[in-house]
Recover the amino acids of this structure.
């Protein structure tokens, strides 16, 4: 009787350990991704490029409206390019999370 009571608890403990390990792996991956993102932001210098474009746009554009319009176009293009990068990163991240969820479900099926 005692053995039949201990076995499900042991299985539950094993499942909990698997979940904890899985969460730890996800946390480590998130930290690594965060570091990569930080490095990417530092190397791309979006803010300094943005400031430079703004400065050029207003310096040249005060005399010539055509140049001002062209600079606005460049600026918009620059901002959209950055947004597109973020969207692609987010989609790749979601895809990986979905794959990991599928793997986790398969592991759970194997354990049972």
């Amino acid at each position: 009787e005692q053995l039949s009571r201990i076995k499900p608890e042991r299985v539950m403990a094993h499942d909990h350990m698997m979940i904890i390990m899985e969460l730890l792996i996800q946390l480590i991956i998130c930290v690594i991704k965060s570091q990569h993102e930080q490095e990417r932001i530092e190397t791309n210098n979006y803010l300094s490029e943005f400031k430079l474009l703004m400065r050029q746009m207003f310096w040249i554009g005060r005399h010539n409206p055509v140049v001002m319009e062209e600079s606005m176009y460049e600026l918009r293009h620059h901002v959209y390019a950055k947004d597109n990068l973020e969207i692609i990163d987010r989609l790749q991240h979601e895809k990986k999370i979905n794959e990991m969820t599928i793997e986790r479900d398969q592991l759970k099926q194997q354990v049972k």
Summary: The chain has a mean pLDDT of 77. The chain has three helices and no strands. The longest helix spans residues 65-111.
